[in-house]
Design goal:
Blueprint lengths: L31 H11 L9 H12 L14 H16 L6 E8 L3 E2 L4 E3 L5 E2 L1 E9 L12 E4 H10 L8 E5 L2 E5 L6 E9 L12 H5 L1 H12 L13 H16 L12
Parallel strand pairs: 6-7
Antiparallel strand pairs: 1-3, 1-9, 2-8, 3-4, 5-9, 7-8
Length: about 270
């Protein structure tokens, strides 16, 4: 049963950023405590979603820079790169509940998990991180459906080598980013899975997702850590690893508490 925090969430208005104003040497150092002050002012406490643009504003304000100064000659926005890297980092470490979907992969005769997957609920194209359950060519019902064997290409080769006969039961084979059915149906066909998707890249100022809303402190700390690699060495700042680790663990714990074996209520 799904359970979320009982408190609703809304951004507190922030009119000024907590940027260090003290006198600096030519090699300025930034206080991580002031970052924490910014976070405490921006942490959600009623119903709105934090956005990509708001996070960028906080990071640029804390660096005392404008957006143009953080762009490369080729036009790459290094603040955006750092934010998306932080989001990728946490998704590599955990399969979030809200990233679990039922997906359809179009095959002819193979399908690609990176370019040919659709979210069955929304119809949107998605990129698949990992498959949990294979349903084969039969579209599952709301509560799921009959499962089929899901094997790597190496495992299938071993089955073919040691099997006494020719197996006829349909299996789904995973090879790199490709999937296909064996025996292979004639013509184009669809395969269905329960899977973990990757969140789409943040691009527009209004873009948002659950990591920004429920892990905003983590996103600030980790994005700042990523930005350290994109600025001059004498302008880098120390990252408080205790705060970063605590924010990451808090986000993980939030996700773990979404599914409860005992609670029956759903609180938003």
């Amino acid at each position: 049963m799904v359970r979320t925090h009982s408190r609703s969430t809304k951004l507190q208005a922030v009119k000024t950023l907590a940027v260090i104003k003290a006198a600096r040497t030519p090699a300025p150092r930034f206080s991580f405590l002031s970052v924490r002050v910014v976070i405490e002012r921006w942490l959600p406490f009623s119903g709105d979603m934090n956005t990509f643009g708001e996070l960028k504003d906080i990071l640029l304000g804390h660096l005392s820079r404008n957006g143009v100064s953080m762009q490369t000659e080729g036009g790459s926005d290094m603040v955006a790169v750092a934010i998306n890297s932080a989001m990728t980092h946490i998704q590599r470490k955990r399969d979030f509940e809200w990233n679990k979907i039922t997906t359809q992969v179009n095959c002819n005769p193979k399908g690609n998990l990176l370019t040919q997957s659709l979210d069955l609920d929304t119809g949107e194209a998605v990129t698949i991180k990992r498959i949990n359950v294979a349903y084969g060519v039969l579209k599952p019902e709301l509560a799921g459906g009959p499962k089929v064997d899901y094997l790597s290409r190496t495992s299938q080769a071993q089955v073919n080598t040691y099997a006494s006969g020719c197996p006829t039961a349909l299996k789904v084979i995973h090879s790199g980013s490709d999937v296909f059915a064996v025996p292979t149906p004639e013509g184009a066909y669809k395969l269905y899975f329960e899977a973990i998707k990757w969140l789409p890249k943040l691009v527009h100022q209004s873009d948002t997702n659950f990591v920004l809303t429920y892990g905003f402190d983590y996103m600030i700390y980790r994005s700042l850590q990523e930005l350290n690699f994109y600025i001059k060495e004498d302008q880098r700042f120390e990252i408080n690893t205790v705060l970063l680790r605590g924010a990451e663990e808090g986000l993980m714990q939030w996700d773990m508490n979404l599914i409860s074996p005992t609670e029956t209520e759903i609180d938003f």
